[in-house]
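> run fold Tat pathway signal protein
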Amino acid sequence: MDRRHFLSLMGAGLSMGVAGPALASGDEKPAAAVVNLQGVGLPVISGGRIRNYVFVSIRLHLSASAVMETVRAKDAHFRDALVKAAHRTPFTLADDWSQLDTAALSRSLMASATRIAGQGKVARVEVLHQAPRRRTGIPTG
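> ok
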């Protein structure tokens, strides 16, 4: 196998954005399936005005009963529900416009996950990374 073919196979495997159950040796349990959602920009709203945008990366940890391909196919539905929830009830922290309230964001997406993927398909939501658009002009507590 030449190097180009090997690198193209590695690139295809890494760009999937999904980690399936790992095959464990011995008595270790296999790792749970996860789906990484594409990044989404959420508004930071304070005083009725949009003050900033924070771009978040989110990982859905699936339960054993979930089919990974089915949940992955609904990526756009999850992101749409998250953007709608962020505009309806912002996940803004009172003293920091460069981060979002991860607990409120996770609760909101878990409630939407039941409607989108089905009851008990998503075990938990993890916010991997938050990147604010603006880092200046933000009130400090």
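Residues 19-132 form a domain with the Tetrahydropterin Synthase; Chain A fold (CATH 3.30.479).
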